């Protein structure tokens, strides 16, 4: 799944950092799971807004995962304020997993 963004260079840097944020139940990172939908960089307000989902609305590790996303992006952009928003539209499906992720999960 491609992430919608207004700054491809900054998004690429953030996504590289997000490859270290794991879903502990699945053992795969949030990028390869396709959990990151949008990333908007507001240069004036110095904020980064991340819209993401979870594999299920009732994911018991949801808070841990969203905190990990916040911290990972914050490490790359320490002068910016990071806001993570959960959305379930569109709902997550197995088709959102990257090819690398599918190989890791043997799917």
- Total of DSSP H or I helical runs spanning 4+ residues: 3
Question: Could you report the average pLDDT, rounded to the nearest whole number?
Answer: 95
The share of residues in helices is: 25-40%
Give the termini distance in whole angstroms: 16 Å
Strand order of the biggest β-sheet: 1-4-5-6
The appropriate CATH architecture is 2-Layer Sandwich
Number of E strands: 6
Low-confidence stretches at least 5 residues in length (pLDDT < 50)? none
CATH topology: GMP Synthetase, Chain A, domain 3
What does this structure look like?
By secondary structure, this protein is α/β, with parallel strands linked by helices. The chain has one domain: Fe-S cluster assembly (FSCA) (GMP Synthetase, Chain A, domain 3), CATH 3.30.300. It has helices at about 10-20, 60-75, 100-105, and strands at about 5, 20-25, 30, 35-40, 45-50, 80-85. A hairpin with a 4-residue loop joins strand 4 (about 35-40) and strand 5 (about 45-50). Helix 1 crosses helix 2. The longest helix has 15 residues, at about 60-75. The radius of gyration is 13 Å and the shape is globular. The mean pLDDT is about 95.
């Amino acid at each position: 799944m491609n992430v919608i963004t207004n700054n491809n260079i900054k998004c690429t840097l953030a996504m590289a950092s997000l490859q270290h944020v794991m879903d502990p139940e699945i053992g795969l990172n949030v990028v390869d799971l396709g959990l990151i939908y949008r990333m908007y960089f507001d240069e004036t307000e110095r904020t980064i807004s991340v819209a993401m989902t979870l594999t299920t609305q009732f994911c018991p590790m949801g808070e841990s995962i969203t905190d990990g996303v916040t911290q990972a992006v914050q490490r790359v952009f320490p002068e910016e304020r990071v806001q993570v928003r959960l959305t379930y539209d569109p709902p997550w499906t197995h088709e959102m997993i990257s090819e690398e992720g599918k190989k890791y999960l043997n799917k």
